[in-house]
Structure formats: C-alpha cells, structure tokens
Amino acid sequence: MSFLPNIVFLIFLCIGGGFFIYNIRKLIRNIRLGKAENTSGNHKERFKNMLWLALGQQKMLVRPIVGILHIVVYAGFLIINIELLEILIDGILGTHRVFAPLGKFYNSLIASFEILALLVIVSVTVFWIRRHILKIPRFHKSELKGWAKKDASNILYAEMMMMSLFLLMNAADAQLQALQVPHYIQAGTFPISQWLRPLLQNVSVGTLIIIERSCWWLHIIGILCFLNYLYYSKHLHILLAFPNTYFASVRPLGTSKVNPVVTREVKLMLDPNADSFATPQDTNPPDKFGVSDATDLTWIQLMNAYTCTECGRCTDECPANLTGKKLSPRAIMMKTRDRLEEIGRNIDKHGTFQPDGKQLLGDYITPEELWACTTCNACVEVCPVGINPLSIIMDMRQYLVMEQSVAPAELNVMMTNIENNGAPWAYSQADRAIVFDE
After folding, report:
1. Residue 309 CB neighbour total at 10 angstroms
2. Paired strand residues for 365
3. pLDDT confidence bin for 87, thresholds 50/70/90
4. Dihedral sign, CA of 231, 377, 258, 290?
5. Per-residue pLDDT reduced to its tens digit, 306-363
C-alpha cells in the first residue's frame, strides 16, 4: 500500500489549515485595534439574539423566498461539511468511507447530503439569475464595483462547483460499487447522483477510479481554498455572524451613546453648587472626541465592518439613499473595512503602525455622507446580522462638531441658540415668556 497520497493529503491539510490560522490571527489582531467597549451583562438576551439572528436567520425571512433559499445554502454549507470529517479521516488513514459501518444511518446521511446538494445548486442558480439577469438594483449600486462585484459571483460559482463535484464523486463511487471493484465497499444511498450513473455506464473501471478520485481531491482542495478565501471575502460573515449578533447592542434603537466626559461637564454646568475652578476629577481625558480613523472605533464596530455581508438591505431601506443622497450604509461599512485592512497591511510591513497621511474621515468617508443620515435606524433594524452603521456615523459626526467645529449651517445656528438661549429657537428666555403670556 502506497503512503504517498496520505502524505500529499497531510501536506495540503497543513498548508490550508496553517494559512487559515494565520488569517484568523490577523483578523483578530485587526479587530483588537479598536477601543474597548463594555459588553458585560444581558447574557440571556444576547444569546437569544444570536440564536434568532445568526442561527435562525429571523431577519432573512422577512423576504420569504430569498430567505428560504439562503437558509438552504446555509444548511447545505453546514450539514454537507459534516462529511468533511469522513474525508479527513479517509485522507489521513487511506481508508474509504470509514463511517460506512454505521449502516442505515450512514445511508440516510449520504442521501440527505445529496438532496441538500441539489437544493444548494438550485438556490445558487436562482441567486445568480437575480444578480446577473434580473439585475436587482441593490446589487448594482456604485459601491459594488471591482472586487466587491466579483466576490459575490466567485462564491456562487465555487458553491455550485463543490456541490457538483460531490454528486459526480458519488455517482462514480456508486458505479464502482455496482461493479464490485475492491476498496469501494457497498455503502451509501444516492437518490440524486444515481441519475448521473447512466453517463458512466460505458466508462472503464480505471477511468471511473480517476473520476472518483479527481472529484474527491478537488472537493477537499476546494473546501480548503474556500476556507482561506473567506478572509478576503464578504462571506466572512459565515464565521463572524455568531459573535457579531451576540455582542450587538441590546439597548433600544433610539438610545444614543453618551460620552461620559461631556456628561460630566454638563452636570457641572447645571450644578449651582459646583466649583467651576476645581481640578477636574478625570485627569485622563480622551485624546479626541469622536472618530476620525478606524482605530478610534470600538472593537465591536470593527467586527461589524468585517461581518458586513454587502447584501445592501441597509442601503435599500435608507431614506437618504432612496432620495438620491450620497449616503449608503453599506458603503460606510465597506469603507471602514477597507481602511482597517490598509492599517493592518501597514502594521504587517513596519511592525507597528506608521502614519500614512490618511484617515477614515475624508479619505474614505466624506462629511457629505455623514450629514445625509437622518438617524432613523432603518439600516440597523433591517441588518440580518446585527450591524450598526449608525453608530459609526454618529461617532464621526461628533468628531466633526467637537474637534473641527464643522457642521451644516442650520445645525450651527441651532447649537448657538441652545448655548445662548437655552433652546433651539432664536428667542431669549425672556422673549419666549412674553410670547407665552400673551
């Protein structure tokens, strides 16, 4: 018995697994560049959100047909890859269908895998038609160009190819079993691939073995390649959807994040007994108010950026975008991820981050986009995996106002009136009292 295939398999496995671990460590490193955020408490509610949104895909089912098709692909990805355990053991030990002794349970398992594989092919075909023939508008927005546009198609082709290889492998295996070829034990039920067997009726045993082995190798290599492709793809949400939905905010959507330093100052201003000349209790004020670059964001916001599926539901619901404004919540997340990746490459090259003269605000996201937001929370409400583009928008607005004193004229007038008159109107308290008395 030759051990060369086993050695080659182990080499591929080590390369694929090692590169995956390398990418995951880089991903964790980049997310940890964000600032700390308190996520303690509410564990029961967070776990419930994770089950409903990530596992149950509750928000996907708002659009039933697409939601069901997506669940089919999702289930196919998870369940069919249970077979990966058998492939790994067979590849390492040189066995064939090592779980075959499970008997009827194994046969039922293979049959369910085949049915799922067919459903995945049908679902992926529908997704391809929606994207390339029906041209659904949200798949053709200005931010989806270049790599972002190719990425989605690459995944569809890869999923279709892996499912097809799986079915063709089983068809060749079933034919070899029927011919009672040694090593190909009688195991498995093949309700779908049996329809491919007539194509292999007149094929020689040697060619059948080549077909079966080629599909087996291409299938496992495809899985390893897909695993490592995830880091460079919007499909990273397959891994990050669970932690992202767990750590998503559990506060009511209308609740705004409060800056504790600003809160303290306002309380001092409103306290008649406060000593305005006293030394501030907080001797470590923040370096800046708000956010101007990706590393000013919290680690949860950075994880949001990596989790974004680029599905466009947020932009599809955004009233600003629908009325022709430049704002696209999806673009906010994509640009944040692009800037974070640029910072990560800078660190990889220099060991530590070296100033590159760029920042998220201005070079990636413009003030025009930020001020177009109506803060309606539609993007947050509709996101299938709990992403919050609004939190990034509001933090960057805070930087514009508090650090650069840059805001739309209307907002500046309102803030000046609040400062001078205690209300957004251009009337002093005395004048307002006279009006009310009349």
Report:
1. 21
2. 361
3. confident
4. positive
5. 999 999 999 999 999 999 999 999 999 999 999 999 999 999 999 999 999 999 999 9
DSSP letter string, 102-149: GTHHHHHHHHHHHHHHHHHHHHHHHHHHHHHTS--GGGSSTTS-THHH
Q: CA–CA separation, 305 vs 302, rounded Å?
A: 5
Contact yes or no for 192/168 (Cβ under 8 A): no
Provide the CA 220 distance to its chain's centre, in angstroms.
Answer: 24
Residue in 374, 363, 380, 369 with CA at minimum distance from that of residue 325: 369
What does the pLDDT look like over 384-413, one tens digit per residue? 999 999 999 999 999 999 888 888 888 888
- Nearest of 240, 84, 248 to residue 166 by alpha carbon: 84
Global confidence as pTM: 0.88
* Residue pointed to by tokens 């000013």: 296
Phi, psi of 15 (to 5 degrees): -65, -50
Closest CA to 152 of 228, 222, 234: 234
Question: Do 163 and 120 contact (CB within 8 A), yes or no?
Answer: yes
* Chain centre distance of CA 271: 46
Q: Classify 365 as helix, strand or coil.
A: strand
Please report, for the chain, how many H helices and E strands are present, in that order. Answer: 19, 0
Which two tokens mark 262? 């600003």
Q: Compute CA 136 distance to the chain's CA centroid, rounded to the nearest angstrom.
A: 20
By the 10 Å C-beta count (0-12 exposed, 13-18 middle, 19+ buried), 373 is classed as buried
How many C-beta atoms surround the C-beta of residue 279 within 10 A? 6
Rounded to whole angstroms, how far apart are CA atoms 405 and 420? 17
Q: Residue 299: what are its φ and ψ, rounded to 5°? A: -65, -30
Beta carbons within 8 Å of 426's beta carbon, 6+ residues apart: 413, 417
Neighbours of 402 (CB within 10 A): 14
42, 250 contact by CB (below 8 A): yes
